[in-house]
Amino acid sequence: MSVTQSGAGTAVEAGAGERVEPGRPGSATAALVAAVLGFFVITVDVSGVNVALPAVRGDIGGSMSGLQWVVDSYTLMFAALMLSAGALSDAVGARRAYGWGLGVFTLASLACGAAPTLGALTAARVVQGSAAAVMVPASLALIRQAFPEAGARARAIALWTVGGAVAMAAGPVLGGLLTTEWSWRAVFCLNAPAGLAGFLFLLRAGRSPRRRAAFDLPGQLTAVLALAALTFAVIEGGHAGLTGTVVTAAGVAVVSGAGFVAVEARRCAPMLPLELFRQRGVTVPVLAGFSLNAAFYGVVFVLSLFFQEQRGQSALSAGLMFVPMAAVTACANYLSPRAVSRFGPRSVVVVGLLVCALGCGGLLTVDTGTPAPVTALLMIPLGVGGSLAMPALTSLMLDSVAAERAGTAAALLNTSRQTGGALSIAVFGALLAGNFAPGMRESLLLAACLMVAAALAAAALPRRSA
Theoretical Cys-Cys bridge with 213: which of 87, 331, 405, 435, CB 3.0 to 4.6 Å? Predict the structure, then answer.
């Protein structure tokens, strides 16, 4: 695929002589709006559902492990399919892949909103997560296609990133409002008008080129099986102990993980080139991204339950507890690229991770008697540190790989982040199952330790990698 200039604008040429013309005037803006809308609802469905979990249990029943699966079934598929979803986007064209993903995501959201049982809700969440995995790389490809000029593209990607950051921080607020004023089902049904709006903007976007792209089916199947089995073992093991089923699941996770490594090592075009892990500039951001999302997702999960089940707050009141963090997070996310330009990505990553660790440490002092304003203020460092570190982690990762590996590196980073979120909810939920108050403190301490370890690893990077 190549980009050429013509009197009518920029045209993209696909392989085999196929020529794809740009869209109508305003198509670039339409593509950006469609991409941001999709990324926003995808991210809200990661963070906003946490606040609705007690209402879900009150309406259709379910155990703590069942509630964990409502969250993790989505996040797992999101993580496991991310690496190969880019190949699908390339093969069918970004606009078509994004349209398919958005359509399936919207229908699955309606199925979530209408789910009569926890099992049906979890199954619909699996479909949602699969569609989300297709939408993310396709949305970035849409932006790349719509903004061929580097400066304009950087600004567009920044807006896309800010949209996701705002959704992550504001998700609990929105989820609490919808759950209190209407129902937990409204959290999912909100995706229908957003999906329709995304389609309308997508129709105005330019057509996307296609290119041949290999799909790594053995690698994909072993990756899904390994992550699913590991999460099952952690969730069920935390509630039922080392039963035969749990041990079997752990064994399947180990065998599938080994199979994934063996498959990727032997394929000519693997979805995850293993040689990437020979570079510390790749392994450290992967581990730091895992730790960062583990802390953020896990703490939001724990606090959402704490506010409602231990303090007796409504879903709306619980959501409002996240407002100060959401507001400051958006600002810090905007300032992070400037800090990276001035101090370098390594320094910003280390500072951001340490601020997150301090935030988790501060929350260790919270109990049912802590005033609500104090609790809300203590949550702010977690959001600030994460929003500072994440853009810098992305810069650190992309600076460490060749340009032709940028897409794979970005997918790997996002996969590690989503995996960290899924496993933290599995582990933290297991810790809460025995006794909530000690389990909450153990979860926060574990999150703080993860942040400190990741910060030390980032600080040890040589300057040439940063």
Answer: 87
Instruction: Enumerate the β-bridge partners of residue 5.
Output: 10
**155: its two tokens:** 């600004």
Instruction: Please tell me the distance from the alpha carbon of residue 294 to that of residue 297, in angstroms, as a whole number.
Output: 6
Cα separation, 369 vs 363, in Å, equals: 13
SS3 content of the chain, % helix, strand, coil (to 5): 80, 5, 15
CA–CA dist 441, 370 (Å, integer): 14
Query: Measured between alpha carbons, how far is 285 from 466 in angstroms, rounded to an integer?
Result: 11
d(CA 455, CA 53): 32
Query: Within a 10 A sphere around the Cβ of 452, how many other Cβ atoms?
Result: 18
What span, in angstroms and rounded, lies between the C-alpha atoms of 275 and 272?
Answer: 9
pLDDT in tens, 72-83: 888 888 877 877
Which residues touch 35 (CB under 8 Å, ≥6 apart)?
98, 139, 140, 142, 143, 160
Amino acid at 24: R
Q: 217 CB contacts (<8 Å, ≥6 apart)?
A: none
Model pLDDT for residues 2-60, shown as the tens digit of each residue: 333 323 333 333 333 334 444 454 677 888 888 888 888 888 887 778 788 888 888 88
Residue 447: pLDDT band (50, 70, 90) is very high
CB-neighbour burial class of residue 181 (10 A; exposed 0-12, middle 13-18, buried 19+)? exposed
Place of tokens 């409204």: 186
Residue with tokens 């479909």: 127
Rg (CA), the chain: 21
Write phi, then psi, for 4 (nearest 5 degrees).
-125, 160
Question: Cα(285)–Cα(400) distance, rounded to whole angstroms?
Answer: 10
Q: In whole angstroms, give the CA distance from residue 368 to residue 355.
A: 24
Query: Would you say 296 and 450 are in contact if contact means Cβ atoms under 8 Å apart?
Result: no
pTM comes to 0.74
Q: Is the pLDDT of residue 115 over 80?
A: yes
Checking if the pLDDT of 407 tops 80, the result is no
Instruction: Say if residues 108 and 131 touch (Cβ distance below 8 Å).
Output: yes
Q: How far out from the chain centre does Cα 299 lie?
A: 15
CA pair distance 70, 137, nearest whole angstrom? 24
